Amino acid sequence: MTGAQAGTALAGELVTFTRRHSRAYNRTQTSVGDAFADIYTSLVALGCAAAIAVSFVGGLRDEMTRDNAMAASLVAGSPLVLPAPLLWTLLTYGGLAAILAVARRLGPIAVTGAQGAWWLPLPLDRRPMVLPTFRRRLLSVGLGATLGYVPFSIVTDLAADAADHALAAATFGAASVAVLGIAALLQLGLVAPRRGRAAALLALAPLALLPGMAAAGWPLAAAVLAGVVVLVPLLRRAGQVTGTELVRGGNVSGHAASAVFFLDTNELLRSMAGTPRPAAGSRARRFYARRTRGPFAGLVRADVTAFLRLQPLLAVPLLWLAACLAVVVSDAGLPAWLQLVFLLVAGCGVASGMGTVARRTALLPELDALLPLPRAAARASRLLMPALALAAWMTLLSGALALLGAGGPLLPAMGALAGIGMGAGCLRGATRPPADWTLPPVDTPMGPVPRAQLSSLLRGLDVTVLSLLPVGIALFVGQALPVLVMVQAAVSLAAVLVVLLSGTKSASGRQ
């Protein structure tokens, strides 16, 4: 046995010893009754979720197979029509791109803090240390993507049978595994980050085409072959990922998993936030260096500078905008209520992404008390940039819908006003107080549900949904009436006043 083989064998023995004793310790801390209760609750919750999904998919199929389904669209007479197969392919590409982005942020090859402290300093081959977790992630992503694609396949291909849907789902699962391998290849740093991301996004295009052609049989084999081509060289070089990258991915994964467990969307978004962009930081520094007068003007300049430095790229809001327009102009027969739901989800998603600065400053709200300003003035400064950005996004969306024949000429004005209210909802959600875990849970058919956590999750979303409600009514009735414009202005003004005049609690509960 060579020195390298001996090091690999020793590393494998070390990992096996650690995991065996860790499992033995966990078994001593868990009783059989607790394990049975957890398994039973999980199975009941999954069964209820599956029943809800089946009923929703069945009702949606009935809506889409109606003869007058196209007449119920928001823009039935649109001069631009997107073929349904192209829409499904674009949505599949978006799903694969989301898997790539999340996987790149989480690792996908990573170690926990304890593993990084005990294993990485050892002069041994790292492959036995990182491959078991990576293999489990490959399996979980493949199975999850396969199961998650089944409802999408049923809705998008109404004439296919069960075998075709199973092939399509399996093809998407294999493509997701290949995407996870691509994300792991980016960790190796073999190419420049920008070129690597561009090449990865280009590689997703043929993978997105395969599930739609899965009935032929060969797309599944092609997806599996793509996964093998990506994973075979990756598994040999997995030990070459730098220790810094392994620890970073482990920290982000642990932070995100804790946020999901505690139902804290703010912590989840904090964990997924990227680093400041150098180009944006340079522009923000030049803006910040200008002279200012008064504490409020200085705070506004600081918040604008932080927004320019920390806010993610415009690609995500623009992709949401393109997806909304694609869903509206498609000839897939989607009913109007489903299009409105998609627009609502897109608006809430974009609004949540605009609260990066407020989400970070909310960690220490005591700092705002040190400013020579009223609390409402500090919150108005934090509200400025999200409100302007969301007003611009909603103006673009509503203006495009008006050009396509939905809503009338007053719809862009309603969109701009709704964006201001959405900015208030963004700030309200980013500064929500931590949930109180001391309250007893509520018993439901799906198991016990935390009482305070649900209301905490809805804080911010309630204002965003309320701000989008008049726009949705205008789209549903087909005309942005003047009374709806006035209602929209009143709703947005009320949302802003509620957010500006409300208090903020710190993590310790102090006002």
What would your notes on this structure say?
By secondary structure, this protein is an all-alpha fold. It is 73% helix and 1% strand. The chain is built from 21 helices and 2 strands. The protein has helices at residues 3-29, 32-64, 84-106, 113-118, 127-156, 162-187, 193-209, 218-237, 243-261, 265-272, 278-288, 295-310, 315-329, 336-353, 356-361, 366-369, 375-403, 411-430, 451-458, 461-477, 482-501, and strands at 442-444, 447-449. Strands 1-2 form a two-stranded antiparallel sheet. A hairpin with a 2-residue loop joins strand 1 (442-444) and strand 2. Helix 6 runs parallel beside helix 8, helix 17 (375-403) packs antiparallel against helix 18 (411-430) and helix 18 (411-430) packs antiparallel against helix 20. The termini are far apart. 34% of the residues are buried.
List SSEs in N-to-C order. HHHHHHHHHHHHHHHHHHEEHHH
The fraction of residues in strands falls at: under 5%
The stretches of 5 or more residues where confidence is low (pLDDT under 50) are 504-511
Shape: globular
* Gyration radius, rounded: 25 Å
Largest sheet: 2 strands, antiparallel
- Bin the helical content: over 70%
Strand order of the biggest β-sheet: 1-2
Total DSSP helices: 21
Number of strands: 2
Q: Residue-averaged pLDDT, rounded?
A: 82
**How far apart are the first and last residues' alpha carbons, in Å?**
66 Å
Structural class: mainly alpha
Give the SSE layout:
Layout: H1 3-29, H2 32-64, H3 84-106, H4 113-118, H5 127-156, H6 162-187, H7 193-209, H8 218-237, H9 243-261, H10 265-272, H11 278-288, H12 295-310, H13 315-329, H14 336-353, H15 356-361, H16 366-369, H17 375-403, H18 411-430, E1 442-444, E2 447-449, H19 451-458, H20 461-477, H21 482-501
Antiparallel strand pairs: 1-2
